[in-house]
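QA checklist item 7 of 12: single-chain prediction sanity check.
[x] sequence parsed
[x] length recorded as 266
[x] structure emitted
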Amino acid sequence: MITALVSRKGGVGKTTTAVSLSAALARRGRRVLLVDFDSQCSASLSLGVRREELAPSSADLLLRGVAAPALIRATPVPGLDLITASVDLMTADVELARSPGYARRLQTGLESVRAVYDHIFIDCPPSISVLPQTALVAADNFLVPVLPQFLAVEGVHNLIEAAHRLGERYGTRPEPLGIVLTMVDYRNRATHDNVRHVRQRFGELVLAVEIRINVRLAEAPEAGEPIFTFAPTSTGAHAYELLTDELLLRFERRSRAAATPVETGA
């Protein structure tokens, strides 16, 4: 199962969600690969990789045809592997746009390792430009972290529509796995109204678990650790454990639905 984490703006907790979900699933015995696809390299740094050690990276997979197994490295979390990002991704949009068939580069590159992992997460840069498009073409589904703010919410509908159009164009049809409300702060008077607005507008697509503001979640990346080892008793760790439970139920329902034959009338 390949899941892309996408957003149209930065600072929404996308990388924290990618790292935390990947680590939580690995801690439960799943084999997980996290692909850092953002030139800021935040997911890689959050798992303890130093800047001078980022290469080789996902840029080599995408731009130079290096095989995925040669790029995979272990992390301090047993069961969680990583393909790092690097600053080479900063110019990848321009380089890829000149290449025929660029949209399927990541899909093709991950094919050789897809069967090795139970879950592959792709942490995309905050946009809907070329790099996130290649991630969506490669993905079975996508997860959208969003802040409970009016302007942030307005962009979610456009992002989902863009993903559907991309799927129709390339015949892949990545499905929205869910919308995750992140950095929720109920001390802000408008938060209650904004959360209600998100849930009314997108219904069951919005996950029940909300990730509230937590200082430990902000501190964990600097320590190069996922929240479960940095602050295992924190409210942030507890929230991501609950979110993982909810996502596993969604994965299971989708797997059952995909396995159920479609009945046709006589």
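[x] summary fact logged: The first strand starts at residue 2 and ends at 5.
[ ] second reviewer sign-off
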